[in-house]
Write the C-alpha cells for this entry.
Amino acid sequence: MNRRFALLIGLGALLAGRIAYAQEATIGYAGLPSKSTGESNTGIQIADGVLLHAGFGVEAGYDTNVFYSPTNTIGSSIFRFMPYAELTNATRTGPVSRELSFDVHAGVQYRHYGNSVVSNAGYADAWNPNAGLSLSLGGAQFGLGIADVFARVEEAPYANNVGTGGVPPTGVGIERNNNQASIEGRWSPGGGRLTTILRFTNMVNIYDQNSLQSYAFANAMTNTLMLDVAWKWLPKTAIFLNVSQSFVDYLNDAAATMNQLASSYPLYVTTGLRGLLTEKTAAVLTLGYVNAFYSDGTSTSGFLGSTYLDLAFTVRPTQLSRVAVGYRHDFINAVISNFAYEETVYASYVQQIAGRLALDLSGRYAYLSYQGETGDPTQQGRVDNYFQIGATLDYFLRNWAYLGVGYSLLDNRSNKPNDEYLKQQVFARLGVTY
Amino acid sequence: MVKTKLLLATIFMGGTVFAQGPAPEAPPAPGSPPGNQAGSSVDLSVKQRPTLTPADMVNQSKEYFTGMGGVVKRIQTLQDQAKREKDIIRLNCVTDKLVQARVNVNIAEQSMATMQESIARNDEGEQTHEFTRLTIVNQKVTVLGAEAENCIGEDLSFVGATRVDVEVDPNIPQYDPTQPGSPFIDITRPPSASPID
C-alpha cells in the first residue's frame, strides 16, 4: 500500500471524532495519526529487530458549533496537538520474524478551544490519551493473536437540552473511556485455502459520572465470540461463513432500566464474499440473519429487522487513486433506547497528485430510526438523518512530514428539532510521523 | 562365319597388347641408396632449406605478432563482456582461452628472440626451427581466438537451475482481503440524551 494512503487511512484517526470504517477506507475527516504508517525505512532502531517510531501532529482551525447546538451556535478557534510513540519488531527490511510480531503504541491528544465563552463553561481543554498493543504468534497453519486498545475521549457536550443561550452548564462534558481486548486463534490446514478464525472480544465502555447529562447509565461490557470460516477459491477471493454471538450487559442495571435500556445477546449469522473481484476491484458482500435478542423491551423483528446486509466496493482506477463506496443495513445498540435501525451509504475518494499531494474526500449518510421506549419520552420515535463529510489535502515535505488543510462537516437532520445541528471545522495541519 | 570370329578375336587381342604400359621396374634392393637407382628423376627428400630470407622471416613473424595481439585483445573484450553480463559460465571459458593465448604469445616472443639471435649467428637451421615454431604458435592462438568466440554458445547449452519468476500486478493489494476485519474500538459520539436519574 502506498505510504501516503496508509498514512491517510491509518489507525491514527481514532481520536478525530466520528469515523466510520469501510473496509480499508476511513470515512469522515481523517485526523492526526496516532501511530506510524508501518513503514520500515523510518523510525529509530533501538535494538536488534526493534524500531521506535515517534511523531506528532498539530492542527489549528475554527469550529463553527462547539456544542452541537441547533440554534445560538457558539463558534471557536480550535487547536489540537498529538504526540505519540510506537515500538514494533519490524526491521529496515521488513518484519523481523513471521512467527512473532508485536506493536505497542501510546499517544495523547490535547485539544483547546480559544473562545472565552467555551473556556468559561469549562470546556476549553481536553486530554485524550490512547494506547494499544498487539502480539501475533504462529506460522502459516496455526496462529495466535492478542490485542488491546484503550482510548479516552473527552468532548464538549450537547447544548440543546440543558444549556441556555447555546452554552451548556459547567461540567457536563461527554467523557468516555473505552477498552477493547481481543484474543484469536487462526487455523489454516493444508495449503491455506480454508481459513478458520475463532476470536473473543471484550469491550468495556465507561462514561464518567460527572453531571446530570452523564451517559453513565449506559456503561456496558460487551463480550463477543466470533467464528469465521473462509474458503479461498481464488488466492485473494474467498467465500465465508461468519457466526458472531455477543453479550451486552449494562453495568448499572437500575440506571439502565430506568432509561429503557436492556441487556441483549445479538446474534449474527452471515455469509458472502470477501476479496478481489478483479485486479482493481475489491468487495465485501455480506448477507445474513441478525437478531438482537434484547432481554426486555423492543427487539429487532420482521424481515428487515432480521436482515443484515453489507455491500462494500473498493476500486483502484490507478495506482495513485482509490474509490470506495458502500451500503450497510444493520442495527446499532443505542443509549436513548434499546437500539436503532441503521441504513448507511458512504463514499470515499483518495488521490495522490504529483507524488507529493494527497487528497482525501469522503462522505457518509446514515439513517437512524430509534426503536422502542426511550428514557426521555420526548425522544420517542426519533429519526436522525446524519450527514458527514471530510476532506484533507496534504503536501508531503518528506515521506514522514506533511503540511495540509482539512475540512469536516457534521450535519444531523432529525424529526426532533432540538437534536439537529450543523457543525463545520476547518484546519491547517502539520504532521511528523517518523 | 569362322573367318569373321577369328578377325574380331585378333583385333581385341591386339588392342589389349597395345593398351598395356611398360612393365614396372623391380623394387630396389634393401639397403641400397636412393641415389644409386639408375634412371630415377623424382626427389622425395624433405626440404629443410627455407624459401624465405631471414628478413622475410622477421617481417612475417612481426605480422604473426600483430595478429596474435589482436586475438588477445579480442578475447579480453569477450572477457569484459562476460563480466558485465555476469555470465559465469562464459567468463570461465573465455578466461581459460585468454590464459592459453597469453602463454602462447610468450612462447612466440621467446622464439622471436631466439630467431633473431640465430639470424645474427647466421644459423640457418635454428632460424628455420624458430620460424616454424612461431608459425605453429600463431596458428594455435588463432584457434584459441575462434574457441573464445564459440564460448558465447556455451551458456545456451547450460540450462541451469530451474527458476520461477512470478509477476504480481501492482494493483493487487499485498494484504489478504479475504480475512475478516479486525474489531475496531467504537468511540462514536452518542446522540444527545436527557437521561433520567
